[in-house]
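Appendix C: a fully annotated inverse folding record. The material below is reproduced so that readers can follow the format used throughout the book. The structure is listed first as tokens, followed by the designed sequence.
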């Protein structure tokens, strides 16, 4: 099992998935639709496009996003370079992130001199799935943050083809997305209660531009000719469609906006028809699990999300506790004896000492024993990966 909150998960991923002898050869449209069906484009990932199925039971959303981003980048690497070497991919992916990171974004400061290339990539990916917002906002904004992760895939494709990423490419891409979302919302006949939230979520998620600096009046004023690849054009259409869907229906006038957008970018109208249908089916099927559509009070939502994450933490530590107890033969024997006789003073001291050792190994369990332990939830959530002890790192198995 992969633990994407502990070091070594990238190596474990490639170990479990293996490497195909035949590189992926999908056409851009086929590749894009496969990735979209997993939810990666929409920001709510329900599956992975991998050779071997991955069980995500007990995973938190950030862990799912990390694995999805890694896998999508690797599939892109396969298709463009026709190379399946995972080590070479990791090297190239690191070079790519070194190229695109903005001066104000301290990704590279996370990397230590002693880190392996895979560990360095793990840290970069970990930062890429996070928002720039506070901890309360972060727990409901990932629907957009994760959708914008496809920006990395588009930029990575550029890097693989041309050996570089065009200057301000990601900034221009984000400006186009923000502009299209703004224009799409203006075309809606019946604004929904989610529109304002959608804008806030995008504001929290963009890294290279600002909503306030984007001011477009119509599609004609956008420099859409800058985006020459089909992957870019498909993505922009889907982002605009996602904004239009927020009132749970795309009306005729709103659909016309998408068809006009496709015409300007020279995308077949059939793709728009399929895009509208795909977006509707995906959201209708998964709406109850998408935080964006279940948002009410931010503090309440935060604690709901926090509670779910703590349940995951407890479950994982429970499994680790069982494993630790099973390896403590003497402790198990003494505990068994205590069920039918009083332990001697020396035996009690041994039990106490070994139980304390286990508590030190799994501090995330003992935190709830403290007075007001439940009030420490926000702090606990922030440090969850650090509370999972290295001794129980499944990636090392």
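Designed amino acids, in order:
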């Amino acid at each position: 099992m992969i633990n994407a909150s502990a070091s070594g998960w990238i190596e474990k991923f490639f170990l479990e998935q293996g490497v195909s002898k035949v590189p992926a050869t999908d056409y851009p449209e086929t590749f894009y639709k496969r990735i979209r069906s997993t939810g990666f484009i929409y920001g709510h990932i329900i599956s992975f496009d991998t050779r071997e199925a991955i069980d995500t039971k007990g995973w938190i959303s950030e862990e799912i996003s990390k694995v999805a981003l890694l896998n999508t980048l690797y599939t892109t690497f396969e298709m463009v370079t026709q190379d399946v070497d995972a080590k070479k991919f990791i090297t190239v992916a690191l070079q790519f992130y070194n190229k695109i990171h903005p001066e104000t974004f301290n990704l590279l400061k996370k990397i230590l001199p002693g880190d392996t290339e895979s560990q360095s990539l793990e840290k970069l990916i970990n930062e890429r799935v996070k928002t720039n917002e506070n901890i309360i906002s972060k727990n409901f904004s990932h629907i957009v943050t994760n959708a914008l992760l496809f920006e990395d895939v588009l930029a990575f494709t550029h890097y693989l083809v041309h050996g570089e990423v065009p200057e301000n490419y990601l900034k221009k891409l984000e400006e186009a997305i923000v502009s299209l979302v703004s224009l799409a919302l203006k075309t809606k006949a019946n604004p929904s209660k989610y529109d304002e939230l959608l804008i806030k979520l995008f504001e929290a998620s963009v890294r290279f531009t600002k909503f306030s600096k984007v001011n477009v009046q119509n599609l004609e004023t956008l420099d859409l000719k800058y985006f020459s690849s089909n992957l870019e054009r498909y993505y922009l259409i889907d982002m605009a469609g996602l904004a239009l869907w927020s009132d749970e229906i795309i009306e005729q006038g709103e659909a016309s906006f998408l068809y006009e957008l496709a015409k300007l970018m020279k995308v077949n109208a059939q793709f728009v028809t399929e895009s509208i249908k795909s977006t509707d089916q995906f959201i209708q099927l998964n709406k109850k699990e998408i935080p964006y559509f279940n948002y009410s009070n931010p503090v309440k939502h935060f604690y709901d999300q926090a509670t779910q994450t703590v349940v995951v933490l407890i479950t994982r530590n429970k499994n680790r506790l069982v494993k630790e107890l099973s390896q403590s033969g003497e402790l198990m024997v003494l505990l068994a004896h205590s069920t039918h006789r009083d332990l001697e003073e020396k035996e009690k001291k041994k039990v106490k000492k070994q139980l304390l050792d286990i508590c030190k190994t799994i501090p995330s369990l003992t935190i709830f024993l403290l007075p007001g332990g439940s009030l420490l939830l926000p702090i606990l959530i922030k440090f969850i990966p650090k509370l999972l002890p290295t001794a129980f790192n499944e990636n090392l198995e």
